[in-house]
Amino acid sequence: MADILPEREALRRAVELLRAGAAIAIPTETVYGLAADATNGEAVARIYETKGRPQFNPLIAHVADREMAERIAVFNLLARRLADAFWPGPLTLVLPHRAGSGVHPLVTAGLDTIALRCPKGFGARVIEALGRPVAAPSANSSGRISGTTAEAVEADLGSRIPLIVDGGPTPVGLESTIVKVGEDSITLLRPGGVAADEIERVTGMSLMRGAKGVQAPGMLASHYAPSAHMRLGVAEVKPGDALLAFGPQRAAGAERAVALRNLSESGDLREAAANLFSHLLALDRSGAATIAVEPVPLEGLGEAINDRLARAAAPRDH
């Protein structure tokens, strides 16, 4: 089983394990990440093995600062503007991969681009101490609900990894927004912790949408899936449903729900984003065969929340 250490005691042990090629769970401001040295092919393979992740799904390389990032990818003026505005923070930039960066090809899954993010807090400290970028997808079994607490990570991956660094509940609670940056265009590949309108306001540009294929992490159709089936945008709760609620007004028949969690009783989308995965996990553990989900508005962070819900509800083989 994994050792669980609080952030303030974990830095030296975390760096030792990363240097030894281990995959460990670390807190970031978005969700907990399953981290390994991005320059070590065996370590990166351990991420895929631990998660059971398809190898065509690329990973995000996390960096300590923009100086490290520019040794790995080619930044244009637009990419620098985005990094200056949103780093450190929950924005991932997909950029041309610089030859000789040292990042292992497993991280990019054969693409000529690389996804880069500069995290806050412990993530940044451990990368700086390691001196190398860290690949760190969400710390959960592939396709399952992302962990936003050390306890959730332990329940899922505790038997497969040596260390979980406990930083408490993650403040954003939703993975990073991913954008692909061109010379004069920005394409939204995955909505997340930075709302699209914030990016448009900073750049003065409209985001393009509708990217095809797997160009970045989190683009598989079925993802973040609980064991229970899901019904989205419900107006009525059926007997035996668990209910994922939003806002002050309940769907008809809410009293029938075998379990209920409200993303935000006040209708606050940032609070809803932070609660999304932990509430889904709690409802999935209720034993209900179906999780009914009340409508969540599409504006702001609601776009990312609805994206995750749609992926969680997508048809799947398991």
From TrEMBL:
Share an example GO biological-process annotation for this protein: regulation of translational fidelity
> Any keyword ATP-binding?
yes
Molecular function via GO: ATP binding; double-stranded RNA binding; L-threonylcarbamoyladenylate synthase; tRNA binding
Q: What is its EC number?
A: 2.7.7.87
Q: Which residues bind L-threonine?
A: T30, H62, R117, A136, S176
Keyword Nucleotidyltransferase in annotation: yes
The family line of this record is: Belongs to the SUA5 family.
Name where it's found: Cytoplasm
Which species does this protein come from? Nitratireductor aquibiodomus RA22
**Function comment:** Required for the formation of a threonylcarbamoyl group on adenosine at position 37 (t(6)A37) in tRNAs that read codons beginning with adenine.
Where does the sequence pass through the membrane?
Answer: none
User: Which transformation does this protein catalyse, written as a reaction?
Assistant: L-threonine + hydrogencarbonate + ATP = L-threonylcarbamoyladenylate + diphosphate + H2O
Instruction: List ligand-binding residues for ATP.
Output: R53, N57, T113, S138, S146, R190, Y224
- Gene3D superfamilies xref list: DHBP synthase, Threonylcarbamoyl-AMP synthase, C-terminal domain
Would you tell me the protein name for this molecule? Threonylcarbamoyl-AMP synthase
Q: Print the keywords alphabetically.
A: ATP-binding, Cytoplasm, Nucleotide-binding, Nucleotidyltransferase, Transferase, tRNA processing
> What Gene Ontology cellular component terms go with this record?
cytoplasm
YrdC-like domain location is: 8-194
Q: Which SUPFAM superfamilies match?
A: YrdC/RibB
